Amino acid sequence: MSFLKRAVLYLTRKKGRTVLLTALLLLMSCFVLLGVSFQESAKGQADSLRKSLASGFILEVNTENELYRKHIDYEQGGGSNVYVGPTVTDEMIEKILSLDGVKDFCVNWMNYVWTDLKLKPGAWASTQADDEETIAFAKKVGAGWTTEEELRVWQNESVVYPCQNGDLHYNFRTGALNITEGRNIAKGDRFKAVISEWLAKENGLSIGDTFIVETKEGMFQPSEEPLKTWGEPVELEIVGFFHANFSQEPSEYTYESCYIDNIIYADMDTYAVLEKNQTNRNDGNAYEWEGYNEVEFFVEDPGELDAIMQRVEEWEELDLNNIRVVVDSSAYQAAVKPYQRIRVFAIILLTVGLAGIGVILYLVLKLWVQGRRHEVGILISVGIRKRGALGQMLTECLLVSMMALAVAFVLSGPMLDGCADAMERMYAPKADAEAYQVSASIYELEITKASSDEVMLRHDVSMGALGFTTLFVCSVSAFSVCLSFGEIRSLEPKKLMRLM
């Protein structure tokens, strides 16, 4: 009788063991099949999102490089280090814009300004110059000593974000802000501004009105004249109002410059003047500055992003000394979050299937095989070699594995469909959840998109998932049998005969 016939006969007679083994292998197959399918689906969707949402790349200066930092001493004592190394220049921007597929750019930078507007009250609004808590707080954040004039500077300090095209700025591009009246900053604007509805209402301003921004000495260093103006004041004409599509909770530790209602968007000419005011300062510490620390470029086809980035990195004429080229993943990071969680879930399924059930399967097969010494002894006594007995057990295990896999493949469609539906509902954006997360550090306001679009997963099992599951389940079961049979193989025939 061949070992195949003996294997079939054994399985039909030992129905209890066959059912137990089939159940374990079926469970393992389902876990592995679902895990691999979810892993493939989440990875595929993440790659698609990257190609569709990674809309550009960023030239980013490494301002922390000590080789390009200069120490500035203050007249009142102390000092600070400023970056004076290579930057992204207008010439570099023009060269990159000349590449096929690059359509526009946006400067990711800001200027601190003093304004004559009444700002939303922040950390400095309710403080007094001679108050001990105020002095302690000022020292904690590095603001030096506090006088009435210094408080006036900090209470009216805001931030200007320069734009060539306001609609391309991250906060407008992601929908965190939208224009409610007038228009956004546009190419060709000179000394124009977009402010919040709240700021306009509080100061009685309308489209076409103007206000002043200045560079005050007290904003950047301790001074006996903190209200002294560096360079030229800038008069800005209001061309639009924006509304924030999120709520920002007030805090006693939030600076005036970190409230979205106090933020100002202006054009590149305004940026040039404000940078000149700060670099050509009238305190004897002027330093040369040309260009930008971070510039974002947008491409027409996200699928060509990698190729365009490679061309930029290899373009010797650009001289990217101390400048990094990185992918703009701001919108992508928000949309990919649920898929990253699904991949974690897939890894858990695979771990349970591969490790957990695999260990249980090995232990069961070990007990099963080693409990058949008597049977092996009989086979040897009738002239069948040990490898013939091993072949029979491998055949039994592989037959059961194929039965379990067949059932798993039949059930895979409905299982994956139900699990995918559950995942899509679980990670769908909550209707009442904030779409944006707001964090205000000591120096700036950061807005990140928190919610994503609808989660879409594959509802079919790929051939790759079927192939991997088949290979893994059969390999684990065969390996377990061979490893368990090792102890029997090491026994001499006479000893096996005595065990009969």
Please describe what this structure looks like:
The chain is α+β, with helices and mostly antiparallel strands and 500 residues long. It folds into 2 domains: 3-48 and 336-498, no CATH class; 54-330, no CATH class. 46% of the residues lie in helices and 19% in strands. The chain has helices at residues 3-13, 15-53, 90-97, 132-140, 148-155, 170-173, 197-202, 268-279, 305-314, 330-370, 373-381, 386-426, 463-489, 493-498, and strands spanning 56-61, 69-73, 79-83, 102-107, 111-115, 157-163, 177-182, 192-196, 210-216, 229-244, 264-267, 294-299, 323-328, 436-440, 445-449. A 6-stranded mixed beta barrel has the order 5-6-11-8-10-9. Strands 4-12-1-13 form a 4-stranded antiparallel beta sheet. A hairpin with a 5-residue loop joins strand 2 and strand 3. The protein starts with a helix and ends with a helix. The model has no long low-confidence stretch (mean pLDDT 78).
SSE arrangement:
Blueprint lengths: L2 H11 L1 H39 L2 E6 L7 E5 L5 E5 L6 H8 L4 E6 L3 E5 L16 H9 L7 H8 L1 E7 L6 H4 L3 E6 L9 E5 H6 L7 E7 L12 E16 L19 E4 H12 L14 E6 L5 H10 L8 E6 L1 H41 L2 H9 L4 H41 L9 E5 L4 E5 L13 H27 L3 H6 L2
Helix pairs in contact: 1-12, 2-10, 2-12, 2-13, 10-13, 12-13
Taking the sheet with the most strands, its summary is:
6 strands, mixed, barrel
Report the portion of residues in β strands.
15-25%
Sequence of secondary-structure elements: HHEEEHEEHHEHEEHEEEHEHEHHHEEHH
Q: What percent of residues adopt helix (DSSP H or I)?
A: 40-55%
